[in-house]
Structure formats: structure tokens, C-alpha cells
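If I may wish for something, please sit down with the protein I am sending here and say whether C-alpha cells and residues agree:
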Amino acid sequence: CGIAQNLRRHYSPYLLRAVVLLLLVANVINLGADLGAMGAALRLLLGGPELVYTIAFGVVCIVLETFVSYPRYAAILKWATLSLFAYVAVVFAAQVPWSIALKSTVLPGMTWDADHAMALVAILGTTISPYLFFWQSGQEVEEMHRRNAKPLCITPRAAGPELARVRNDTVIG
């Protein structure tokens, strides 16, 4: 069973509701931080009001999720992930002092002010999101229910059919 099902089985309904409420609050904060980061990034590119960009990103996401079919929306999001290669491009485009970058990777400097605290919350919030714990446990339960399924590293010949199944599930979704 997943986390929520185990909480429901073994603890009071009040605890389950409290945990789900905390999960909801954490997800809303995480969503707000992500939309705010997108608005800030667009402001860096175009200039203009960050708050308007943040709200526009939120509205666009809601409209797409509401009025675009799942297969089409999944395809849009898959193509949008290509934008993550911008991180790699920045490394090659910027004049990075590698000795300082490597030293700061091992021994980061931290100033305790609002900007650094916000960056730390953003990193931790997207890295250890409470939703991921619920999602991961649900995925593990789903995998356990699939009979005769072995890890692809043990049965590499099954990779092709398994990838086809995932693609079909995404398209049918």
C-alpha cells in the first residue's frame, strides 16, 4: 500500500486528513515557488513585471490542463523539457572560473539573507517535495501489482515491449 493507504489503515482519520492537508499546503507553496521562478526568469529575458508573468504562467498552465487532451499536453511538456538543455548551454556560453566553481561546489558559501534563504527553500522544495514521497510509494505499489515483471537490467530483452507499453499508456493516458 502507499503512504496514504497505510495511514488510513493504521491511524486515525484525523492524522490522514492532517497529513493530506500538509501535503496540499506544501504542494501549493512548491507550485507557487515554481511559477514565481518562471516569472522571474521571463523578467530576466524580457524585462517587465514579474508578478504579471507569474500569473500568466499559472493561467496558461490551468488553461492547458483544462482544455488540451492528456496525450497532447504530455507531448507539449515532453518538448518543453528540452529547455532544460539551456543549463548545459549556459556552462559553455559563460566564462566560468572552474577552480572557483569546483571549490564552491564542495564548500559553498552561504549568506543568511532573504535571497539565499529563498534559493535554499527552492532547491530543497523541488528536490524533496512531499508529493514525490507519495508518488514514489504509489509507483512502487503499482510495480508490485504487475506480475512477472522483473527489472530491465535483469531482463534486457523485455526493454522494447516495456517501453512500448509505457508509450501506449502515455498516449492513451
In short: The chain has one domain: 3-172. Residues 35 and 58 are 7 Å apart (CA to CA).
